[in-house]
Every structure is written in structure tokens, then in C-alpha cells.
Amino acid sequence: MKLYYSPGACSLSPHIALREAGLNFELVQVDLASKKTASGQDYLEINPAGYVPCLQLDDGRTLTEGPAIVQYVADQVPGKQLAPANGSFERYHLQQWLNFISSELHKSFSPLFNPASSDEWKNAVRQSLNTRLGQVARQLEHAPYLLGDQLSVADIYLFVVLGWSAYVNIDLSPWPSLQAFQGRVGGREAVQSALRAEGLIKE
After folding, report:
1. Is the pTM of the predicted complex or chain greater than 0.85?
2. What residues are designated binding site?
3. What residues form the annotated binding site for glutathione?
4. Is Transferase among the key words of this record (predicted)?
5. 3-state secondary structure of 5
6. In 10 A of CB 91, how many CB atoms?
7. Structural domains for the chain
């Protein structure tokens, strides 16, 4: 398998999931501005949407969109329990959180990274994010992970998105449960390995 990624982007989530799963894969870095891979290949030929992540299987098929990719990865190694069994209520609970993180958190960060966004718009986004972050924080006050005692791919996705806070001046200190969560997930060996591989922390 090949994972097309850009350092620190949302592709970090499937990158961590692949390491947690213990699967063999190749990392291929993409320049999102030029739409070229590190070897100079036209990334649009692989993923016409032009963004990351994209997982290319050994038979050439591709899968895009982080929430879909991390579920695929989890299902390859059910013994790792990165996702509840398909068809179970708990699996739908996982999908609930993946959708929430994608639509309510991930997309809300985008305007904060965009220099064309007005200060008024950014302030409105921050207010909305504060409400949503409060919802997640309350969930994590009762259990170490979103689904309870077991780490899931939803937690990996949440860890990556919350990590962007430092780059857009969002202070997580009002939510101790979020800070504790970041420390808990961030200390995992697979997470540290992924961060080092993407050059986000020093060796």
C-alpha cells in the first residue's frame, strides 16, 4: 500500500492508523501547491481531487477521504480493535464521531489557516469551535477515549485535528480533558513514529 500525504495535514490520521495497525505501507509525500509527488509524478493522476490523504492499494485501487481510509485500515486487522465490528451499534457510534470530527471540527479549522479569511469570519469560526470542543471535552471527562476504554480510529483523527490548535492560536487549557487526551494519545509509540516520519518532531 501507498499513503499519499502532506506533513501535518489530515493525512496524519491514516498514517498513525497504519502504524497502530502494524501494516506495511509506503509513504509518498505530496506538494499540495504543485500537485506533484516527491518523485515529480502528477498527483492529479492518482487523486483528481488533488488533496490528501489517498491510500493506494497494491492492486492499484485508491481510497480517499480520511474517515473512510481509517475504517478500511482498522478492518484489515480486527484484532487490534481500532474499530468496532461492522454492523454493531458501536460501529455506528464510531461513525458518528468520525462524521462529527470531519464536519464540525476539521472543516471549521480550514478558514483559520486561510489568509484570505476575514477577522470577522475567523472570530465567528472560533466561537463555533469553542462550542464543539466543549462537547468533545465533556465526552472525554467520562472515559479516556471517545468510545470508552479502547483507542479507536476516531481518537486518532481527533488527536490530529486538535493538534492544529497550536498553529491557529486556539487555547485548549479551558478543557483539561482535551489536554489530557492529547498527552495520552500523543505519547503512543505509533503516534511518535508517525510524527518523526513526517518531520514534525526531531529524532
Report:
1. yes
2. 10, 35, 52, 66, 99, 106-107, 110
3. 10, 35, 52, 66, 99, 106-107, 110
4. yes
5. strand
6. 18
7. 2-80+190-197 (3.40.30.10), 89-188 (1.20.1050.10)
